[in-house]
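Narrative of activities, Objective 1.

The group set out to show that a structural description can be obtained from nothing but a protein's sequence at a throughput compatible with the screening campaign. Below is one input-output pair from the validation batch, recorded exactly as produced.
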Amino acid sequence: MNNYETVFIMNPVLSEEQMRETVKQFTKTLKDHKAKIGNEEYWGLKKLKYTIQKKNTGFYYFIEFEAEGTTIADLEILFKRDERVMRWLTVRLDKFSIAYADRRRKRLSDNKTKKEEAKS
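Output recorded for this entry:
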């Protein structure tokens, strides 16, 4: 099994419910293929560098997971067929990228705890 990261951009005209449903569909596909999801992040509505399908913004979502190579092929087919997804990128992580992802996750969790402590 290999480690992968996927970032996909969803259409900005989607409602909150449609966006959650889209994410749930892709995570369900990964779980059906026995993938282990390590991290998920919703990056929010971001301005695009260039126009895609006459849209200047899009909802970004990030998933980090461990899976077989055949899972990626099935996931890519779903991305191609889904009209709600404008762009996607799946990258296989090497050992250096895995170490960086672990440090990044730790840093994010540390920042969350600091914010929670500041609120108290």
